[in-house]
Amino acid sequence: MTEFNTIAIDLAKSVFQLCVISNQGKSIKSLRLNRTRFQDFMANRERSRIVMEACYSSHYWGRYFEKAGHEVLLIPAQHVTPFVRGNKNDKNDALAIYEASLRPNIRFVPIKAEYQQDIQCLHRMRERLVANRTSLCNQLRGLLADYGHIFPVGINAIIKGVREIIRDSSLSGSLLSELESSIVEYDYQTKRIDKINKVLKSHSDKNPHSQRLMQIPGIGAHIATAITSTVGKAEVFKNARDFAAWTGLTPRQSASGNKSVMGGITKRGDQYLRKLLVQAARHTVRWAVKESDSKLAKWINEIIVRRGLQKGVVAVAHKLARIIWCVLTREEGFKPA
Hints:
Elements lengths: L5 E5 L4 E7 L5 E8 H9 L5 E5 L4 H10 L3 E5 L1 H4 L9 H12 L12 H32 L9 H14 L4 H34 L1 H6 L7 H11 L8 H7 L4 E6 L2 E7 L5 H20 L4 H13 L1 H22 L7
Parallel strand pairs: 1-4, 4-5
Antiparallel strand pairs: 1-2, 2-3, 6-7
Helix pairs in contact: 5-6, 5-7, 5-9, 6-7, 7-9, 9-11, 10-13, 11-12, 11-13, 12-13
């Protein structure tokens, strides 16, 4: 056991705050180091317990320290904030990280492998490209409406209409030139989105966990890769209910004494993953209409009738989260009842 048993680190881009804690839980050294000195300091440390907030660059440093033989624990940022005492500064933040690491029921964040971060980067880039493409189409729709051009709903409809306007319209040359540039921009963004989709599909074909997830109705390669890159095998969650609660798809509870009120969903956890689960649930609802003989499909159809489409879809998304946990942790394919 090393003398400096725990090192709490407040990460940053260029300046790092370290709080060295003894085996007795006493702060014995506080250091403020630049990036180079920080790497040198950690390279010369004996095996230590390192605690950090799960934030910017934490997974990179987590892998770096694990290779050096240290034990690394990442703490969710929202669990660190309550332990900050006094003024908000790097030193107090490092102490808060250490104190949060001592909580008995804390759920630490697993350190992501590089391939998981690669896939997450692809998802984030694709999301930005889709948002930019949608924004472009909405702008074209609004601008051309002032010239009497109205298009049906949908991206394909407006792009087809703009191409026809470029060929046949009597609009000014300067506007037509910008419309042509907008079409080039749309085509470029679409090609990049299609390329990312192919890469994600390739990842899902090689990953056995993604393959198992794709057996679940409503889960395709896009959603399967997002799930595996975010939670891995979901081993950090002790049961299916715990995972569903983490996705933010459980009702918000307000209770006092003998009174308990259930509200809308909590919307905690990963917003992107929750959005994909709701989208998957809409596909699952359509599947249930066609495959009405299975037990799962009957349950889905009944809840849609009883609670309505929108609330029913969220309930189905919650059910999918529980099924996903079972498939990942048991490492077996989906078996519809």
